[in-house]
Every structure is written in structure tokens, then in C-alpha cells.
Design goal:
With 455 residues, the protein is α+β, with helices and mostly antiparallel strands. The chain has three domains: 151 residues, Beta-Lactamase; 77 residues, Orthogonal Bundle (Helix Hairpins); 150 residues, Histidine kinase-like ATPase, C-terminal domain (Heat Shock Protein 90). The strands form three sheets. The protein has a five-stranded antiparallel beta sheet. A hairpin with a 2-residue loop joins strand 9 and strand 10. Helix 1 runs antiparallel to helix 3, helix 5 runs antiparallel to helix 6 and helix 7 runs parallel beside helix 8. It binds adenosine-5'-triphosphate (ATP) and magnesium ion (MG).
């Protein structure tokens, strides 16, 4: 099973490498510093030894030799014995326990002792040198004291070994603090969790963002957006249910009335008449249910699958399909405009549904011997679909309301559910277009125009 991602684990793994590097780096730094201070101290005592030798040389009148005690003292140090040499610049070595090189710059009597790093017999040495003037021989005497670096390094190493575990402990404490900090930080989410837990299913109001830590605002804002979409969807469903109930109640009541009438008056003529009503009512209810479903589909939130659709052949073929029906109604139905090249990004099924509703309306209202014209044009970046008829049209004052659900201008025929233009408007909007109304040719009838962005 896949392990769920964990903030704590993530943070610790992110920190692990830098902290390990920091540990190694601090070790190197500590060693360098420790070596530096060890050098300072060891150098200081080297100078002191040189000065002690100087004092002895002075009292020794000529500095020919060191007392045996001093020698033992200097040579007894096992690790890094101290080497010395007392040299007269005119008479050569006066006393030495090792052949030390001359300092790179010959010291001047009375000047401060100098310190040099030198090599002797393949060993690196630190050497303090000073000079004094011997009055008896009238010569300059150079005193050098030197020792190896082993002890200094050993001291630095000890300091390093002593401090590394302390640094490691600090790192461990940091990691523990991170762990604890994340745990405590996540408690900031508790109010949000509580807020959501206490919600009822229908409570889709936005979350209270004021108590949400800023770092997770993007998350809660996304949740809010989702809640908003859910709210819209829920409203849509509620409206659909209310609409459906409303739309079906009237025809059902009518059906019952007709049935009662037929039962009360069983003469074949009246039964026949009642059945004709029943047929009309049930057909209307069926159409209303279909229109409601279509409208609900066009309003659904999820993005429809858009593709390139050429509206010219689509409209032309559809018109051809309905010509026989129009002929039967003595209506001259025709197509004008392009043969092809009116492409939009869209859903062909939906676009055809819009056309169906417009042609339905036009055929319904054109009147006998009327005309209905469907046209598709392509202007700059717009594809235009127009359906116009030669019927009575709709008074201009009602145009703004055409396309509202269930809106029918006063005096309109009672069949029809009043959803057709709402469906058309919704489809136009979903395709980024708009719906407009106008007068037909010679100021007669209604012209419905859909403008869509061309692909
Ligand atoms: N071409 C038209 N000529 C005259 N009036 C029209 C025309 N088209 C629509 N109308 C008026 O607008 C009203 C609303 O039309 P719409 O298509 O939305 O609903 P409907 O045709 O009544 O019902 P449905 O199309 O859902 O079966 C119609 O009832 C009609 O009064
Ligand atoms: Mg209609």
C-alpha cells in the first residue's frame, strides 16, 4: 500500500542532508579554530622558552652551554621535544641539541622574538628566535627554540572530538523541535476541521477564512470554490425538481379532469372528445419533460466536450430534414447563406438542439403560407445563425424577457412549455455567444440571431 505523504517526514528528509553537511562543516571549522588557538598558545610558550634561554645565556657569560637541568627539562617532553640552538654569528654553534636552521631573517638584538615555520630533517617545526649582543666576545648570538606540530594537532583533535557530539546533540534537538513544531502547527487546522465537521450537508456557505492559517488559504479557497459550484449545482437541481413538479401538475390535473368527464358522460362522442384532450395534454407533458431535461443538460456544470463544428452544413441538412413537415403546413422553409466554412468550437448536439427549438418556434408561428428562413453567415470573427419567420412576431417590449424560463408573452398560444428560447440562450452562452431578437423581413415576424465566436 502506498504510504500517505507526511509533512513531518517530508520536513525531516528535507532537513537531513543540510544538517549533516552543517555537522561536517562545523567539525572542520572547529578543528581550524582549535588549531589556531593551540598554535597561539604553543607559540607563546615557545617564546617564553626562548626568553628563558636568553636570560640563562646572559648569566652564563658567553652562553657556552646550558645547565644539565635545563637540558633534561627541555628534552624530557616525550611527544614533541623542544630543540634549541645557541649560535654566535662569528663563532658558530655554541650549544645545541639539534641542528636547527637559521631563521629566514636574522633577528636583531633587542628586537621582539620572531616566529617561523621551518623544516628540519623532513619535519615541520615551529621556531622562535631572538638575538642578543655578547659583550665579552662582541658578537651577536642567535638563540632558536623549536618544536614539532604533533602536540598542537593532538590538542585540536581533542577539542574536535569533545565538541562534535555536542553539535550532534544540538542537531537532534532541532529535529525534535521540528517534529514537535509541525505537530503543534497542524493544530491550527483544528478549528477548520471542526467547522467542517459541524456542517450539515446542505450548508455550503463559504468557510470562515479569518481563522485559517495563511499557508493553507489556497486549499480552503479551492474548497470554497468547490462549495460554490456545488451550491450552484444544488440550486439547479432544486429548480429542476420544482419546475418539473410545476410543469407536470397542470397536465396531470387536466388529464384527471378529462377522465372524470369521460366517466361521467359515457357517450362515444364526449369520450372521444375527452380522449383528444388527453392526447394533447399528455403530448404537452411529454414535451415539457423533454425540454426540462434538455435545459438541465445545458445548465450542467461540467465542461462539455467541444470540438470543431461547421454550422453551415449542420443547419442546411437540418432544414432539409424539416422541409416535408413545413410543406405539409404550407410553409416555405428555406436555407440561405454559406455551404460551409462557418466553424465554431462547440458541441454539435447542443448546437443542433438550439436550431431545433428556433425552427420549432418559427414553424409554429409562421402561419399558413408563411415563410421560414434559416441562414448561416461568417463575419470577421463571428458566426451568425439566423432564423426568421413571417408570423405575427413578438412585441418589442417583450424581447428582453424572451429566453427567460417559462416566459411567454401575453396572448401566446397555450401549448408549449416556454423553455425553448431559454435552452437556446443557454446554449449560446455556453459557446461564448449571445442571443438577439429583431423583426423579420418587411417588419413582419420574429428574427432570432445567435452570434458565436468563430473557431
Ligand atoms: N417565432 C416566433 N414568433 C412569435 N412568437 C414566438 C416565436 N418564438 C417564440 N415566440 C413566443 O415566445 C414564447 C416562448 O418561446 P419558447 O420557445 O421559449 O417556448 P415555447 O415555444 O412556448 O415552448 P417550448 O419551445 O418549450 O415547447 C412562445 O410561447 C411564443 O409566444
Ligand atoms: Mg419553442
Amino acid at each position: 500500500m502506498l504510504r500517505a505523504p507526511s509533512l513531518r517526514r517530508r520536513l525531516l528528509t528535507i532537513l537531513a542532508v543540510p544538517l549533516a553537511l552543517a555537522w561536517i562543516g562545523s567539525g572542520a571549522l572547529i578543528y581550524v579554530l582549535a588549531l589556531h588557538y593551540a598554535n597561539v598558545n604553543y607559540d607563546r610558550s615557545l617564546i617564553e622558552t626562548a626568553r628563558a634561554l636568553e636570560r640563562m645565556a646572559r648569566s652564563d657569560a658567553g652562553g657556552a652551554a646550558l645547565s644539565p637541568q635545563v637540558r633534561i627539562l627541555m628534552e624530557s617532553e616525550a611527544d614533541d621535544p623542544t630543540w634549541y640552538s645557541v649560535r654566535s654569528l662569528s663563532h658558530g654553534v655554541l650549544a645545541a641539541n639539534r641542528d636547527l636552521p637559521m631563521p629566514p631573517l636574522t633577528p636583531v638584538p633587542g628586537a621582539a622574538p620572531r616566529l617561523d615555520s621551518v623544516a628540519a630533517n623532513g619535519q615541520h617545526l615551529r621556531m622562535a628566535s631572538l638575538a642578543l649582543h655578547d659583550d665579552s666576545s662582541d658578537a651577536t648570538i642567535v638563540i632558536s627554540v623549536a618544536e614539532g606540530l604533533r602536540e598542537r594537532r593532538a590538542l585540536a583533535r581533542e577539542i574536535l572530538i569533545g565538541t562534535l557530539p555536542v553539535v550532534l546533540l544540538l542537531i537532534a534537538i532541532v529535529l525534535i523541535l521540528v517534529w514537535v513544531g509541525v505537530t503543534r502547527g497542524l493544530r491550527l487546522l483544528d478549528p477548520l476541521v471542526e467547522q467542517l465537521e459541524q456542517r450539515r450537508a446542505r450548508d455550503l456557505d463559504p468557510l470562515d477564512q479569518s481563522r485559517v492559517p495563511s499557508e493553507i488559504r489556497p486549499l480552503t479557497q479551492t474548497i470554497d470554490a468547490l462549495l460554490q459550484r456545488l451550491r450552484a449545482q444544488l440550486e439547479l437541481q432544486e429548480r429542476f425538481i420544482a419546475d418539473a413538479a410545476h410543469q407536470l401538475r397542470t397536465p396531470l390535473a387536466g388529464l384527471r379532469l378529462q377522465a372524470e368527464r369521460a366517466l361521467a358522460d359515457p357517450r362515444p362522442d364526449s369520450v372521444r372528445e375527452a380522449l383528444a384532450h388527453v392526447e394533447r395534454l399528455s403530448a404537452g407533458a411529454g414535451r415539457a419533460a423533454g425540454q426540462l431535461l434538455t435545459l438541465a443538460r445545458t445548465q450542467a456544470e461540467d465542461q462539455p466536450r467541444f470540438a470543431r463544428v461547421d454550422l453551415a452544413p449542420l443547419a442546411r441538412d437540418y432544414v432539409a430534414e424539416r422541409v416535408p413537415e413545413a410543406l405539409a403546413l404550407h410553409i416555405d422553409l428555406g436555407y440561405e447563406g454559406r455551404v460551409s466554412g462557418a466553424e465554431v468550437e462547440g458541441d454539435a448536439v447542443m448546437l443542433r438542439e438550439a436550431l431545433v427549438n428556433l425552427v420549432d418556434n418559427a414553424l409554429n408561428h409562421a402561419g399558413e403560407h408563411g415563410t421560414v428562413t434559416v441562414a448561416v453567415a461568417h463575419e470577421l470573427r463571428t458566426v451568425i445563425i439566423e432564423v426568421e419567420d413571417s408570423g405575427p412576431g413578438v412585441a418589442e417590449e417583450y424581447w428582453p424577457r424572451l429566453g427567460e424560463r417559462f416566459f411567454r408573452p401575453p396572448g401566446a398560444r397555450r401549448d408549449g412549455s416556454g423553455l425553448g428560447l431559454a435552452i437556446v440562450r443557454r446554449i449560446a452562452e455556453r459557446h461564448g455567444g449571445a442571443l438577439a431578437f429583431g423583426h423579420g423581413r418587411d417588419g413582419r415576424g420574429l428574427r432570432v440571431t445567435i452570434r458565436l465566436p468563430a473557431a
